[in-house]
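Example (one chain per record):
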Amino acid sequence: MTLRVRLTAAFLTVVLGPVLLGAFFVGSTMAAVDRSRSIERLGLAAAGVRTSVDALCQQLRAAADAVALVAEPAARPGAAAQVVGRGLAAAVLVSDTAGRTVHATAGGPAAPWQDCSGPPPATGPVRALAARVELRDPTGADLGTVSAAQPVDPAFVARLAAVTGVAVTLLDDGDHLDRVTHTTENREEREAVLAAARTVDGDRVTEAADGRYVRRVGPFPGLPLPLVLSVPGERPPGLNAALLGAVVLAALLAVFAAWRLARVTTRPLVELAGAVDRVTDGDLTARVPVRSRDEIGRLASAFNRMTRETGSYVAALTSSRDQLRGHLAVLGDTLASTHDLQRILRLILHSAIAATGARAGAVLLLDAGGVLVGQCTEGLEGRWPSGDPSDPATLRVPVGAGVIGAVVATGEPRRGRWAPSATPTGEPECETYIAVPFAAPRAAELGGRGGADRPGHPPAGGDGDGGTAGGGALGVLALYDRLGADEFDDDDLVTLRTFAGHAAVAVDNVRVHEEAQRLSLTDPLTGLWNYRYLRESIRREVERANRFGRMLSVLALDLDRFKDVNDTWGHAAGDAVLVEFARRVRGEIREVDLAFRQGGEEFVVLLPETDARGATIVAERLGAVVRDSPVPVNGHSEEPVRVPVTVSIGIAVYPDHATSGQQVLDAADDALYAAKAAGRDGYRVAQVGSRPPAREIPVPAGAASPPDGPARAGGPDTAGGATGGASSGPHPPRQSRGR
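Predicted structure:
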């Protein structure tokens, strides 16, 4: 897709997008407002219908009561005539207990009459509404009934329509919507209203084909009339057509304007792109005609100035290369004083590219699986066999594969022209290359093991005797496609060896620093994190729980009667018990949980995103795994002795039991005391609100904490050579309480 097409599409998107959204918003808003108002009108109309029918039924019931209260049978016809004459009812019917008519006023509606309080009729139209009352003598004996009726005729339906303000249709019955008794709808709208009424039930509202809104009311007890109510919509006629016409007109104007704008804009850019291609091919004499003084003209002027200065820079770069090599010693001193490995490697790679005139380069380090992994790259865009990885870590080359893998395997640098192999190696494509391995400065002293003796740094792939490939190689520094020359020469090889030596020193220093940092934050006896890292971790986890609205559970653990173990079997046996207890704790917690030795026989476990129920489950598992298997230790006679051990656990949950990291630790400690007081070998959960609110005062640590990445504290290799029972970090500000 050309730039002109993209500009046209972008302009159309910017212009037509708001137009379409506006038209859609106007249409949908008008429809929603119209429907909402119509539903409200129909709701009020339905309530008005119920009220009108209910008032009529009460009037009829009062009329029937007035006749029934007349004690003398001979006077009842006169009372019935007065009720009809006053307009309280259209007809009055007096019947005996057998249902025979005793007296009926003249001119009444046709039977049958529908009782207001009775169930809706099964079939047939409703001709009249009636209210019926019992007729009794002074002694309470049943003499029959008195019924007062009002006809359901077109006048009645018209009154309902006038009261409610909507069109009213009375059906023959609720099951046959095609038979109409009376209606105020005109003939053209009646069919559409009835068709819409067939699709709804209950109190729902639907829209008819002609834009009217329809609702059914009744029949049900209290309103035995099957009615259909309808109101016309209030949307302006032709709204949709007007909106569509406006959108089409805006689209035509936008297409014409976008085409003209894109054509005027892209012409100088095409000329600039052609000049850029010539410069890419090495022609620094390429120039672009300046046709205007706008941004495009300034860009053309800047390009011409850039090409002139680039030619000067290329000549100056060649002459300053030797001077740059003389400053490498100062650069090495600066790199040795920094522990940010990624920053160091980026600086080394950038300096190496500048010193040799390369177009691209990469630094790869050997991992524990014998694979070279890219740590930083520069200028490798578009050089991959397939795709364009966004992370240098996607550059992975096995040892012995391709040019880079062969450099590490043999320990010898290589340079020359690139010859693609039939088997993919994961290396970037190029025309020329140079690659130099680098090893730790003490690799020769360690017998070619590349620092494999250091704790926490196992050999990264070897030959079976503990040595690494290439005589202790740590990685490779590789550069590609030298500017202004066909291939890299011997001077470039010497320069690159110097940078590779600095990279080796930097990697070795960072690893030594990381090892010292780890030792300062772990307990040398158990391999768990120490109290210093506990203070940092509880603060970090509380902040994380606050940020994401999660819970944090804290377990305070204390070995029961641990002093008896030391007094009976000696401190060596006590240390063995502590080491075994720490191993069991590590085996029972998740990867994301953190375990700490707080001091002596006291331990702490942090359970992120865990509530009190989950913490009690972990506490039960820890108690069982400690209780069920006595710890084997060497007794005074050097004979193995199995020492039974139990643990008491206090549980506190943030934010249920505390508002800060220190408070939740104190709450867990109080719960631990409660577990001790309850007989030991169990757990207790802290009481809610047992502590007053307090503010946590952060205590800065002497060394930076390791990344959040370590899932478990320590490991089998960190506790192996320990001889003492004290933590290497600062101990908690309290003494062991002899629990």
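Caption: The two ends are 77 Å apart (CA to CA).
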